[in-house]
Amino acid sequence: MTNRVLEISNLEKSYGDHKVLKGVSLAMDKGDVISVIGSSGSGKTTLLRCVNLLEDFQEGVIKIDGKEIGYEDVKGKRTKVSAKQVTKDRALTGMVFQSFNLFPHLSAAENITLALKKVQKKSKEESAEIAQHWLERVGLPDRGTSFPGQLSGGQQQRVAIARALAMNPKLMLFDEVTSALDPELINEVLDVIKSVAADGMTMLIVTHEMRFAYEVSNQVIFMNDGLIAEQGTPDAIFKNASSDRLNAFLKNTKF
Amino acid sequence: MGYHLDYAVIWRSLHDLFYGLGLDLYMALFSVALGSLIGLVVAFALVSKRKLFRVLSGAYVTFIRNIPLMIIILFIYFGLPDAGFTFGEIPSFIFALTIYAGAYIAEVFRGGILAIHKGVGEAGMAIGMSNFQIIVHIKIPLLIRSVMPALSNVYISLFKDASVAAVIAVPELTFQTRRINLETFRTIEAWSSASVLYVASCFLIAFMLRRVERRVAIPK
């Protein structure tokens, strides 16, 4: 139980009348890499955004390192925690987005150092050192002074990964991080993610790259209509898919 | 027949014209600086999640933007003393132009805020930055860059609006010109000289703002 990094129980989320998540439960131990696959609209991205508290949710509990995030029990009533606490809870996870979302007015290194300085209150020198370390880690040792507009999509996404990792999160969330990339740039990003996984980082990955999901994960989740329809090892999901729905989904995707 | 242009009288009053121009620049600079601060705060209030902020800021912009500057000035200069607040002409005018500027600049900034990609703010949230930190370190730097062209336009316009101070006898350029006109009857010379000074100043302001714009541009 001490190794349990993420525990989601019975998560429900709706936008108005439209229920997007209908009771999702999921547990991750330290070092787990879980890929989430499924057709668009199945709730994959919403699930990730809930874990990062970018979305409110109506029911269920999300715990990181055993502590509930986002909501608390106040006299038996489920209450949203303060904005300050949300900010703190959010820092437990690192998130990488489909559209990179680098800060365009800051250099690659400054993208990484900003929160180190402002959130973690580290010195300028230490922040710069950490930034350089992570830029090297994602294979961009000499691009620290480049601005996002001067980098390729793949490079931008690697900086975004470095930015998230530099904050030393307990759990990394990847939201379709290669979907906006040109095909020839996808692999450089996936390779970085694989190497981070090899270092033992706990990762929850929403992806359309089936081969990548197969290779990087120890568990794969197939989401359908707001629920986890299947969960198993990559072999069980990709090679021995049992349900018709999963088979239909896999038939329509490239492996 | 024929009107003989004689700029000699203008030359003799050149000092007064430049003094007036300096006063315009001084008042405009003050108002634009303060108005920009107000505009920034009001712009974020306009797009705030809190209804109270939206209503108050919306009311400010709606009222101030839809009242002629002349009326705001007369109201403040002649109205406030009746309410027990007495200011001189210049502070009154700076006050009036500031609240007027704030409303216009707020709308420019609001456009800049809306143009910021939503994901950029979310990325800030995801790495644990507070809303305030995101506004200060990400949104404001981005929005100022994106609104620079529109902002320059408003700034130049506000500089020219300083001429309205003539109605409460602030001895700025327009006021000086009218005085020279009345004293010398050199109407064409007086107003053409003032026009040249306004054009030259605006040109210079635009030039400097363009340099700032280039300087803060994001490298591509």
Automatic annotation (TrEMBL), chain A:
Pfam family, one: ABC_tran
Subcellular location: Cell membrane
GO molecular function: ABC-type amino acid transporter activity; ATP binding; ATP hydrolysis activity
InterPro entries for this protein: AAA+_ATPase, ABC_ATPase_HisP-typ, ABC_transporter-like_ATP-bd, ABC_transporter-like_CS, MetN_ABC_transporter-like, P-loop_NTPase
UniProt keyword list: Amino-acid transport, ATP-binding, Cell membrane, Membrane, Nucleotide-binding, Transport
Its membrane topology: Peripheral membrane protein
Gene Ontology CC, one term: plasma membrane
Domain ABC transporter: 6-250
Family affiliation: Belongs to the ABC transporter superfamily.
PANTHER family: AMINO ACID IMPORT ATP-BINDING PROTEIN, GLUTAMATE_ASPARTATE IMPORT ATP-BINDING PROTEIN GLTL
Name this protein carries in UniProt: Unannotated protein
Species name: freshwater metagenome
Automatic annotation (TrEMBL), chain B:
Entry GO MF terms: transmembrane transporter activity
Xref: SUPFAM superfamilies: MetI-like (SSF161098)
Record-linked PROSITE patterns: ABC_TM1
Protein keywords: Amino-acid transport, Cell membrane, Membrane, Transmembrane, Transmembrane helix, Transport
Location (main, coarse): membrane
Family membership: Belongs to the binding-protein-dependent transport system permease family. HisMQ subfamily.
Transmembrane annotation, as ranges: 25-47, 59-78, 90-109, 190-209
NCBIfam families with a match to the protein in the record: HEQRo_perm_3TM
One of the protein's GO biological processes: amino acid transport
Membrane topology: Multi-pass membrane protein
Residues covered by the ABC transmembrane type-1 domain: 21-209
Record-given protein name: Unannotated protein
Subcellular locations according to the entry: Cell membrane
A GO CC annotation given for this chain: ATP-binding cassette (ABC) transporter complex
Organism in which the protein naturally occurs: freshwater metagenome
